[in-house]
Amino acid sequence: MLALQTTTSVGPITAKRLIEYFGSAKEVFLAKEKEINAVHRIGHTLYKNLQQVDVMHRAESELKNIAKYGLSCYTYQCADYPALLKECVDSPLLFFSTSSSFNFSGRKILSFIGTRNPSKQGVAICTELIKDLKAYNPIIVSGLAYGVDVTAHLAALDSGLDTYAVLGHGLNRIYPDAHTSVAKRIVDNGGGCISEFWINSKVDRENFIQRNRIVAGMSQATIVVESAIKGGSMTTVTFANDYNRDVFAVPGRVGDLMSAGCNQIIKKNRAQLLTSASDIIETLNWDSAVKSPKVIQPQLFLDLSPDEELIVECLQKCERELLDMIALSCSLPIYKVSSVLLNLEMLGVVRPLPGKYFELVR
Hints:
This protein is of the alpha/beta class. The protein is built from 17 helices and 12 strands. Strand 11 and strand 12 form a beta hairpin.
């Protein structure tokens, strides 16, 4: 997969499509030109790129770097690959980490983002929010940048919470250098640093924008503490919105530059207003009692239509599911699924969850 990741013009979406079509990354490189051309929207130019000799040389060189720096590599097919991130269509084909294992299954995960120049109040709010969430043992994700990012990591460490830093460069270094000691604390306390970028990748703006989709994709919700209207935080919010994830923003005074971004996304309904940790807890339903599993047989008690039965059967196969994925699994248009889900909700068969998820009432 390293070779596929480094092939020119092959992004994560195309790479996954190729692997799905041919069965493995190895088979992609063994495929003949006419077989590559048979893949929808993938043609002659890509075949030539796959045949470049230096593709395999670069992959072999990176394997040596992975061993040299003691990194772990996780492909999207690995069981330890974060489940929420895997749901994102453009999630990394693979990423590297200083952590030898991930235990994200069933965990509450939040991303904290914001300005690199927060006010004293912003730092205090970020710290207090994480402190108040401690009882729920969430994983805190951020980007190890100056300002809100490093504040979130430090607050998580001080509260004894797991925290992960998603970086926009190779894991042979820490940027900014001043946060090297924080990165070490993160690793020493059971968290880790994560990056999809190879060793010796340049530190540039585009990489950090690309990094932001991972920050948004890994988490149940993204928390914006302070942000201007333009900047990295707003790109992360866009990714979170696109992934149908919850976004929370701390409001600020009118005219305050570092609150303008938060105020705007609240105004445009791209984020929910956040005034305390209880807003997160209530919206994400973290206080719900753990329910013992029961066999769900609504069809025995209700006269369901064929479409309703189809959706109920789909939800019986998983704990919860996205509206879009229900539509895909049932081969029904989204508008039809929305209507059927509303009717099932009225009947007490399903319940809506934050982020356009639905589950059966047990």
